[in-house]
Amino acid sequence: MLLIPDFSDLTERIASCSTDDVQQALQVEHPGIHGLAALLSPAASAMLPELARRSSEITLRRFGRTIQLYAPVYLSSFCSNRCAYCGFAADNKLARRVLTMEEAEREMDILHERGFNHVLLVSGEAPAKMGVEYLEELARRTRDRFASITIEVQPLSTEEYARLFEAGITGVAIYQETYDRKVYDQVHLSGNKCDYDFRLESPARVARAGMREVGIGALLGLTDWRCEGLALGLHLAWLRKNFWRTALTVSFPRLRPAEGDFQPLTTVTEKDLSQLLFALRIYDPDVGLLLSTREEERFRNGMIGLGPTRYSAGSCTAPGGYAHPELEGEQFSVGDNRTLAEVCASIQLKGHDPVRKDWDSSFQVK
Amino acid sequence: MRRLWKRAARMKIICNGKEQEVAAGCTLLHLLADLQLDPDTVVVECDKKIISRADYEGLVLTAGQDLELIRFVGGG
Amino acid sequence: MLKIADKTFRSRLFGGTGKFASAQVMKDALDASGAEMITVALRRVDLANPDDDIMANLDRNKYWFLPNTAGARNAEEAIRLANLARAVGNTNWLKLEVTPDPRTLLPDPIETLKATELLVKDGFIVLPYMNADPILALRLQDVGAAAVMPLGSPIGTNQGVLTRFLVEIIIEQARVPVVVDAGFGAPSHAAAAMEMGADAVLVNTAIAVAGDPVRMAKAFAQAVEAGRTAYESGLGAQGKKAAASSPEVGLDFLR
């Protein structure tokens, strides 16, 4: 059973790290959780170029000069949760829709035509509107066209994840949003998502079901990002110990102040985000690190080769938005509006290879 | 005590791969005593079945039985 | 304290009982080593020498016996030996050894995995001797091994931990204790394994065949303790030249 310490403990552990601790963490082969605390510390903030260099070295050695690409497909904006930070929250006035099977397939076809081989199916958490049967059916219809289909939906049971794996879904992203129990309770106002522990245990269920990959993450801007980073490190280590067959990824969704939207409870700058990403890379050389189109072109271009391994591109966050770009009802507004081709060109310009598929799900033995 | 069964009719058993002559009606416990072995440190396999220590006394040997007497030795 | 299954051990040096010149030397050497867990093998009683009994020389209240299956060439033989060991020693602890190649005595990974799974189901506490293969270690852990015992180098070679790189991965990944076994020629080898983070080491030959086995046992005990203390204290980074030669990374894009 994974236990995340109280954030006051984590804060203390991070705050007590000195420049010497950071130097040490940068030099050893396995910095461990103490090293991660040092790399996340204020002392390390002053050494960002050193962190970037180490992160870049490790990334190059482990992943080579490649960046994997994917695009999200928003299937449904219905949600029975009220999360203070989310555009899909149940009490938001919004023209909600769930795509029909044909519409969903059409969205995926468009992405396929644009050259994507990896899609992430996303939906709000409303099991009555979009349940396991829907995802199963969609995966069966489309699995032959894609190298990998992953999902980011409501947490499911081990049996349900196993069914989806059978149907051709190979990975699941499920973010804790915040590992701080107190803040978690504050921002999750109602709905199934209020259950912190059920959510925390979800990645383990995904792994137990045999999925090839599980993605975890914290929504940056809810509480101290340094503590979230340390909690992510603990979660990664626990998953590695217990589910060695499952590949792990971390995403870094970052809230930014925007008019009319939810205002972040804390500010996380690009420098903070990059420190978090470098620290996790140095701590765990094997973890996949995702940067989505929430972030701007300038930042994403700059980060190529320094730590991230997977980028989304050409994303639309409204259900049906690829076939009908005029549609409203996005979950969040995108910071990088470039097409897949444009993103690929930038990656190549940086001397990296844009990889559209890493595995063929057709190889999977049922 | 020993004399009693030594005088009785003899029979052959296999003990650790070698033929051995014992008195007919001899029990396993008798045999171990005769071989000067502490029954607490030896395990006996009789026709490939491990005999529980509690049964040493009651187990009457029969001709042709294949016994393995095994114990701990030095090893790494 | 080292914990394997539900038993704790103060000493992280496991002793072997083979290859000693005499029962008395063995007894004295084990005493000097401070070992609490010792391995024993199973053999037919030598009917010509019924007094040749190591049990008689060793106090079972002082030593925790770990019977091995030395000599087994496949899972079936190992399971037979395991059952005999359980009957002889009234213990369900077992060092599983399956070594089909009499020349190298290297363990057979496939038979070892098979036997571990069956023996665990039958209630044994299994500590398999294995090649330093990280995936095998995980597979053995998954089927219920109570610890894994990767080899440092082949039995009797005195080469130390030649499998260092792989043993490090095993230690990093394992949920069960890692006991490095075989190949220790000198106390410094044992210290090195402990510095890596091994939970314990098993030493037999190097002690048994030393000029003075009793003093060598003491030297191994000190080395194991030193290595463990160093590991727990957090070793300093060893010099790395790579960083200095890498170009500076530009972060001007950050806002």
Please characterize this protein's 3D structure.
The complex is a heterotrimer of chains A (366), B (76) and C (255). Chain A is α/β, with parallel strands linked by helices and 366 residues long. Chain A has one domain: Aldolase class I (TIM Barrel), CATH 3.20.20. Chain A contains 15 helices and eleven strands. In chain A, the strands form two sheets. Chain A has an eight-stranded parallel barrel, surrounded by four helices. In chain A, helix 1 crosses helix 3, helix 3 packs antiparallel against helix 12 and helix 7 packs parallel to helix 8. The radius of gyration of chain A is 19 Å and the shape is globular. Chain A starts with 6 loop residues before the first helix and ends in an 11-residue tail after the last strand. The mean pLDDT of chain A is 91. In chain B, 24% of the residues are buried. Chain B contains two helices and five strands; from the N terminus they run H-E-E-H-E-E-E. A five-stranded mixed β-sheet of chain B has the order 2-1-5-3-4. With 76 residues, chain B is an alpha+beta fold. The radius of gyration of chain B is 12 Å and the shape is globular. Chain C is of the alpha/beta class. Chain C has a single domain, classed as Aldolase class I (TIM Barrel, Alpha-Beta Barrel). Helix content of chain C is 40%, strand content 16%. Chain C is built from ten helices and ten strands. In chain C, the strands form four sheets. A three-stranded parallel β-sheet of chain C has the order 3-10-9. Chain C has a three-stranded parallel β-sheet with strand order 6-7-8. In chain C, strands 1-2 form a two-stranded antiparallel sheet. In chain C, helix 7 packs parallel to helix 9. The chains are: A alpha/beta (366), B alpha+beta (76), C alpha/beta (255). Chains in contact: A-C, B-C. At the A-C interface, helix 2, helix 5, helix 12, helix 13 and helix 14 of A face loops of C.
The biggest sheet of chain A amounts to: 8 strands, parallel, barrel
What is the H level of CATH, i.e. the homologous superfamily of chain C? Aldolase class I
Name the structural class of chain A. alpha/beta
Low-pLDDT ranges of chain C: none
Shape of chain C: globular
Q: What strand order characterises the main sheet of chain C?
A: 3-10-9
The CATH superfamily of chain A bears the name Aldolase class I
Instruction: Characterize the biggest β-sheet of chain C.
Output: 3 strands, parallel
C-alpha Rg of chain C, in Å? 20 Å
